[in-house]
Amino acid sequence: MTDLQKIIVVTGVGVVSPYGIGLDSLQAGMLSGKCCLTPTKDVYPGFAGTTAPVSVPLPAEGSNSRYSRTDRLAALAARDAVTDIDCESTLFRESGVVMASTVAGLTEIDPGIAQDPAAWYRRGGLARAASYPVAHVADAVGEHLGICGPRCAVSVACASGAMAIALAANLLLDGVAPMILAGGSDALCPFTLSGFSSLQALDPSPCRPFDQNRKGLNLGEGSAVLVLETLAGAAARNANVLAELRGWAMTNDAFHPTAPQQQGSGLAECMRRCMEMAEVGCDEIGYVNAHGTGTPLNDIAETKAYETAFRGRSRPIPVSSTKSYFGHCLGAAGALEAAITITAIRCDALFPTLRLTDAIESPGVNWLRGAVRRQPLPLAMSASAGFGGSNTVLIFGSGPP
């Protein structure tokens, strides 16, 4: 294996977010500071809260199976990611797909199934239920684009989107496929909203990550897909390199089904391993796009994780949560935040946390708030965590000259 075959690069980024379709729409929305969180009612009877829906038209269902909303978000993001690729080439046809989701086709299952399952299936429920498996999202992307390589599904709660990218990078190093489309997709769903509501984890107003008066999270929806390949492969087809994936790591807290370890030790170890793999010191990371959900337990544990992982740094690490712009997109969150991190590097911008007025006190963290901060950003980190203790950290760089 040559040195160029050991370097993983990003040659395409497809995005469907509450800002619209495409990386440019995401960048413009983030730079403007626009918040997409809006009051929402009647997602299910009695619900009143704040969400961030996607309002763009989505692709029609596939010819052989009914696509769920999650599938269609993924298919649209994947199509956006490959606009500069010859999708008829043998190389593309042999590519792989690694897609994450937590909701998948749960959006297509309505309460009627509990009242009369037989009647629900007779009314067409069987076709709708076919999209229920988490693996259906990867299948939908592969089917939509005619990809014949391996397809993998990832579902480890809110770290899923980032873990899909990390696992795809490992597959590339193993030579499993010449190119891999990796990311995540999740749609707003009554079941997940009611579940988070029962956990008392939702803030009825726009969330305030890392604020001492935070009350919980808001849910959003969307999808992001990254085209990953080795630098050797990208050079062979003269592809435009958007960023380099310098490092990745995965750990688990092994602590609790829903709560993070109080000291953030699992996430801190994940960040340490990621920097070790990237062969960078903690002073070289210019920005961290945080998991930052806005829940009381997550944000304090995450703060402690940064203090541990960046101990010895010469100055506090700049950190922000972009979930304050369009909420927590669950299985898509890590992929969308990877896209945001790449955007930050490409436009030399550190995005602030919105509505952060009374930040958690931390000597090791420089909480970004107020206006967008403009500065050169050679390296940035994206951190993701999830129920069950899953952690994934990615480090992106501006890429080879």
Key terms for this structure?
401 residues; alpha/beta; Peroxisomal Thiolase, Chain A, domain 1; 2 domains; 3-stranded mixed sheet; 13 helices; 17 strands
How does this structure look, described?
The protein is globular. Helix content is 32%, strand content 21%. It has 2 domains: 234 residues, Peroxisomal Thiolase, Chain A, domain 1 (3-Layer(aba) Sandwich), CATH 3.40.47.10; 150 residues, Peroxisomal Thiolase, Chain A, domain 1 (3-Layer(aba) Sandwich). With 401 residues, it is α/β, with parallel strands linked by helices. The chain has 13 helices and 17 strands. α2 crosses α6 and α10 crosses α11. The mean pLDDT is 93. Strands 1, 2, 5, 6, 7, 9, 10, 11, 12, 14, 16 and 17 form a 12-stranded mixed beta sheet that branches. The protein has a 3-stranded mixed beta sheet with strand order 3-4-8, with no helix packed on it.
Main sheet record: 12 strands, mixed
> How much strand?
15-25%
Q: Globular, elongated, flat, extended or rod-shaped: what is the shape?
A: globular
Task: Identify the CATH architecture of the largest domain.
Answer: 3-Layer(aba) Sandwich
Give the ordered list of helices and strands. Answer: EEHEEHHEHHHEHEHEEHEHEHEHHEEEEE
Estimate the mean pLDDT confidence: 93
Summarize the amount of helix as a percent range.
25-40%
Structural class of the secondary structure composition?
A: alpha/beta
Query: Do you know the CATH topology of the largest domain?
Result: Peroxisomal Thiolase, Chain A, domain 1
What oligomerization state is this entry in?
single chain
The structural domain count equals: 2
